[in-house]
Amino acid sequence: VTRMTKDFSTDQLFSLTSTAVEHGHEHGHEHGHEHGHEHGHEHGHADNHSSAVPDRCQGIEMDAVTVNEDGIPYFFHSGFLFKGFHGAAERANETFTELDEHQHLGHVDAAFRLHYEDHPTEHNNIIFFLDTQIFSYYQHKLEGGYPKNISEVYPGIPDHLDAAVECPKPECEEDSVIFFKGEIFHFNFKTKAVEMKEFTSMPNCTSAFRFMEHYYCFHGHNFSKFDPKTGEVHGRYPKEARDFFMRCSKFSHDHVERERCSRAHLDAITADNEGDMFAFRGQSFISRRTSIHPSPFLRWRLVVKSSSGVGENHTLLDGYPKTVKEELGIEGPIDSAFSCDEHQHVHVVKGQLMYDVDMAASERNATNERSIMFPSDAAMCGPRGVTLVKGNHFYHFDTLKLLFSRAVPERHQVSLELFGCDH
């Protein structure tokens, strides 16, 4: 498993090997189905007028987790809502007022942001499940005709759910929603079919969350990352949610937030198969979890993701650093580079030109020169396409070919949507 990085000051290439740690699934399925739906409707409605405001840093269990239309995470606990990865709780009915008009909001059973591009009038709506009813919001306004019974909108799905999470294709075979209530239900939007699944390696989810194309099951104040098709949990899980999804003084420091939410441009970006993203800026690298680490190099400029899994420990391979010319067959400096899992080529960006390097070739050369839409500071590729970072913004392309078109995609803010900042 390799990571290739280029030192800005010396024009050399570093290659890192990673040692993966096997993890048993002792948390497993055995304490899953016994949980039932105790986190949901049994909360009752008395909590709605409680004066005790919850503190996310106290290790509380979330009832539901989703993202809003701008990709900002929303965490629900009792009648309260936490917006983003830090900050105090507020009453959920201050943001979603109609929930309280129809039934006193003491809890939310489940929530997700609808991903259904075949139906643009519903795509990106935020969906809530409360007891037997479903609420559909667009830009924080309740859609006409709602609330409706769950059975009317999602036939075959039970009431009083534990959790729910969207699963768009190709992450699932078709645009779907995964529902949790002891058993696992896959609901197909296209056919309305319900398929029962058995996720034997997962704990019971009290809430579920799709973030940056990865899937997380929250149980208590811990979480596990899982495969939405099989329920398999790979890696060292469960993990503490406050280390990854919350900014708590006990678990992180103020300088982490300042650096993460800085508008200074990134030097490089990549992601591993454990669901973590690494951004490199100056002498530090920033994990999407919560941590900032000093870089052992003066300045990182290039990071290429391999197609294999990555563990926790990274060691420089023998024979490195090397010059970029020696390793990739192209003169430095290089602005960005990335590889996609389905083939063995590294795509190298230099100015407004992109080249391909066949990493399986005995003599590597930069070939297939073509112009791209604009130069980039950093780039990465994943199952959903290519991301180019330029300044404080990034642009997502569904396919590699779209980099060479003239249609400029929507501009997104790095600190807000990649790192969960509130500005």
From TrEMBL:
UniProt keyword GTP-binding present: no
Protein family according to the UniProt entry: Belongs to the hemopexin family.
Keyword annotations: Glycoprotein, Heme, Iron, Metal-binding, Repeat, Secreted, Signal, Transport
Ranges of the Hemopexin repeats in the UniProt entry: 105-157, 203-248
Source domain of life: Eukaryota
Molecular function GO labels: metal ion binding
Name by which UniProt lists this protein: Hemopexin
Chain coiled-coil ranges: none
Biased composition (Basic and acidic residues): 22-48
Subcellular location: Secreted
Annotated organism of origin: Salarias fasciatus
PROSITE patterns assigned: HEMOPEXIN_2
Gene Ontology CC: extracellular space
The encoding gene: hpxa
Region (Disordered): 21-54
Principal cellular location given in the protein's record: secreted
Main function: Binds heme and transports it to the liver for breakdown and iron recovery, after which the free hemopexin returns to the circulation.
The keyword Translocase is annotated on this UniProt entry: no
CDD domains, per database record: HX (cd00094)
